[in-house]
Amino acid sequence: MARARSSRSRPRSPWRRRIVVSLQILIGLAVLALGALLIAVYVARSQLPSFEELKSSPNGQMIRVHASDGTVIVSLGPSYGEWLSYGRIPAVMRDATVAVEDRRFRQHPGVDPIGIVRSVMVRYERGRWVQGGSTITQQLARNIFLNNQKKFGRKFREWILALALERKFSKDQVLELYLNKVYYGGGAYGIDAASRKFFGHGADTLSLSEAAVIAGLVKAPSNYSPTADAEAAVGRAGVVIDQMVRNGFITAAEAAEAEPKSLHLAPEPKQNSVRYFTDWALPQLDTLIDETQAPLEVWTTLDLGMQRTADAAIRQQAPAGTQGALVSLDRDGAVRAMVGGKDYVSTNYNRATQAVRQPGSAFKLFVYLAALEAGHKPEDTVVDEPVTIDGWSPRNDSRRNSGQVSLRTAFAYSLNTVAAKLGQEVGFTTVADMARRFGITTPVNTHPSMVLGTSDVRLIDMTRAFASVANKGVAVAPYGITRVTTNGQEIYRHEVDRSHVLVAPYVAAEMTDLLQTAVNTGTGRAAQIGRPVAGKTGTTSSMKDGWFVGFASGLTTGVWMGRDNARPVAGLHGGTAPARAFAQYMKVATASRPIEQFETQVTLPEWQLEPDEESYFGAPDNGTAAVDADGNPIAPAVPGDGYDDDQAPVDVRRGSDEDGPPVQAAPPQRLDQDWLDRVTGRDGPREPSRPRPAPREGLAPPRFDQDDRPTQ
Prior knowledge:
37% helix, peptidoglycan synthesis, 5-stranded antiparallel beta sheet, Penicillin binding protein transpeptidase fold, alpha+beta
């Protein structure tokens, strides 16, 4: 008996005590967690809106965009069809959704433990989350109350809300809410909006194949949208139908009769070029306002008449097989027209704001601005002669050098050698700084060849720079949104900043002097519209890009044309199709505006040169394809192209001597007589006593030296 008492009084081993204590703690924690969960669920249930309130609450934000005259040009955001009660929703639509999204929908309390375990196992096997295990109720909670962040905290709140929803509403009510509020892609919320968008009729008459297509969209609306990828949509519908058979919703015979491939989709509404503008302008709302829920009315600068004219000009003038873009800015920076390509439906890539291309000689705007700011005047003379800078030797398209010319003449005929000399004089870094000062946002290199436009730019940036010159040197910032209202209350209004002066007014006036000369008698003659116009052409490597940017009557317009793959376009120069498109658009766009004279009247060059086509090696070739990393030319000499094996100029008109190489050209400062006759218009036999041409009205008379060569 003493032995028995001693056995009962013997203390338990420490490890057994630890196990018991641990179990007690775990049970206690589980009870506390369960209690906290129940409290959280019932608190959430008490705070949930009523069924009628959830029916009326929209998902997403509706945005209506207005043109400058108030016309609604596009409505964006969610579209809603008719609300269908549970009884009006076709059984095939309900069954298809349950089969593919939550086959234990009728059994679980809002959260599916089996689905959660399965998703964890898949996560362990594949090393990443592939299946979320979300039920229909969880998806409804997420769509209405939460977001799509993949964080555990959000997932836990989703579980609480899902459990609360099923404590407050029946399964049928949950499914009705889900089918009427879930997002199906293309802006469509709910099965009725999706049915009308994709099939052109209401959801109460959906067939099995149509229901399978719509049910399959929930997983990835953008990937399985019938309008974006019909093949993917059909493939996904097949998966849905297989799941319906597997879960007993339909028979194999019914599945065999379904033919998703034979479905006829409703035609997509035609979209015009205004979408290039809205795609550019609307993302700016994120920085302008904080409202993300209430419907918005957005009032913009777009002029529908100008937009139609711009669209027609690009379509009609751009060469076959090319693309074109146009941006038109009012004097305060308001975007009146924007065309990013020939057809928005086939390609929504906005070449006016996104594409970066070489501007060619249009970039000389910044070279001459830097020279004028440094003290040069349009009448100043400079020698057009061969020049080599750090091994780089630019040449004019004419293969000729004209000797002493004014800056006005050099700019009007886009003489490359003069631009190079000016860039070297003021400093290539100074030119790059001037470009950035005027709004060029892309990187600008400082190689010598940069003066000929070898740095990529955006059309909207180049147009902005020219608009700032037209604005007397005051910075112009493009904008598209004038004001925003919600529920009748104004929450944003644009204010124009006129305080940022880029260059002195006289520098801008002198630059305008050069620009209007280029249009009146230089490379931009095709841009004339019967009123004062100032502008500049640009042509790049092997005619890959054509530019014209100019202004008249307070409106600045930039035009670009070329191929997206940067392949050459035969005959494309800035002074051809782009200048013609500019003129076609501006004649209509400025028709109702008063004619405005520039502060400096146009002064034509003292004598006419052959228009330079902004060439780099004879043909328009200002691009980086013709220069190495240091800006030096790398194109090999072509026999008979006017240069010998050492790249020395030869007189190609005279050909070769019978016993030797081509004869070297005459000194560049002195023009031979054939050339002189051609550029001065004095064709035919020359007589010493021939009277000199009379000066044009308003122009200084031409002057000649003792050899009858024109002088400055």
